[in-house]
Amino acid sequence: MGRITGPVCRLCRRDGLKLFLKGNRCDTPKCAFERRPTPPGMVQKRRSKPTEYGLHLREKQKVKHYYGVLERQFRTYFSRAERGKGNTGETLMSLLERRLDNIVHRIGFAPSRSAARQMVMHGHITVNGRRLDVPSYLVKAGDLLRVKNRLKSLQLVHAALADSRRDVPDFLSRADGPIPEGRIDRLPSADDVSIPVQANLIIELCSK
Hints:
Layout: H1 6-15, H2 32-35, H3 52-67, H4 71-83, H5 88-97, H6 100-106, H7 113-121, E1 125-127, E2 130-131, E3 144-147, H8 151-163, E4 172-175, E5 181-184, H9 199-206
Antiparallel strand pairs: 1-2, 1-3, 3-5, 4-5
C-alpha cells in the first residue's frame, strides 16, 4: 500500500513544523512529517523568499489550522484580545488555549482537537457538572471537567488515555479513575502554548 498523508499532513509539511493535527500518530515514527518533512509534491522546486505579508499570513494560518477555527471565529478572538488588558498577542493565544475542545485534547481525553470537538458536541464531557456541547466555550480557572458517566463516553476517554504519550500541561491537572476528570488550575499563559508561534506577526497583520 502506498503512503497516504492526506491534506492534514500536507499542512505540516508545507509549514515546516508539526501541527499535531492527527493526534497520537504524530508522536510515532508513522508521522508523515517525520518520514518526509519536505513540502508536498513529486518535484521539489526552489521557492522564492516569502514576502513580509506572506510571513505574517503564514503564522496566522498556522494558528487557525492548529486550533481548528475559521476566519470569522479568529477575528472574534482577535477583537476580544485587542479590547483586553496586557499584550494582545499573549491574550489571543490564551483565549485560543481556553477553548473547551483544546482543553479536552490537552488534558488527554481525546487524541486530537478534531476528536475533542466531536466528543464535546456529542455530549461526552461535562463542565462543573453541566453538559456542554459547545467546543468554543472558554473555560475559567477552577472549572472541573468530567467524563459523562455512560459506557460510550468512558470507552472513548479511557482509550485516549491509554494511547496518550504527552504530559498534562502545568495549568491543568487530571485525576485518572473509573470516571476521569480534570481541573483548570489557572488560565493558560503564553508559555503554555504548545506550538511555536510569533504572535506579534499575527497582531501586525490583523491590525492593518
